[in-house]
Amino acid sequence: MALIDWSEALAVGVPEMDRTHREFVELLNRLGEAGTAERGALFDELIQHTEAHFAREEELMEQSRFPAISEHRGEHRRVLGEMRQMRHRPRPFADAWIREQLPAWFLLHRDTMDMATAVYIKKSGLAVDLD
């Protein structure tokens, strides 16, 4: 069972952000269903994806001169720190975090910080597919 069902309702309207969010959801869902043998590699892949995802999002914030960049960047640092810690926690703790905390965090972050960022990026004229 998926931890988050991706739909266009989760899109923020900036193609690059929407693509990386969809990839994040796919990786999170795979991790949530992973067996012991594949779990570590998938967790590492999710962390690496998230690092690149956040770095690119922060570049877009810098390019658009997003005024709340320090708050948004701080939240990125916080959740990456949690991800790195949970990667090495005992499985029951990490699994509960993966299944409960991380999906809830993503949806709240998308609805608040990412949506505000996307609106600002679109107004700045950077809402093109920048890949």
Structural class per helix/strand content? mainly alpha
The number of helical runs is 4
Oligomerization category of the chains in this entry: single chain
Q: Cα distance, first to last residue?
A: 31 Å
Instruction: Report the β-strand fraction as a percent range.
Output: under 5%
* Whole-angstrom Rg: 15 Å
Summary tags:
single chain, globular, 76% helix
Outline the structure in words.
The protein has 131 residues and is mainly α. The chain has a domain at 38-123. Helices cover 76% and strands 0% of the residues. The chain has four helices and no strands. It has helices spanning 15-33, 36-64, 69-86, 91-124. α1 (15-33) runs antiparallel to α2. It is globular. The protein starts with 14 loop residues before the first helix and ends in a 7-residue tail after the last helix.
Give me the secondary-structure topology.
Elements (H helix, E strand, L loop, with lengths): L14 H19 L2 H29 L4 H18 L4 H34 L7
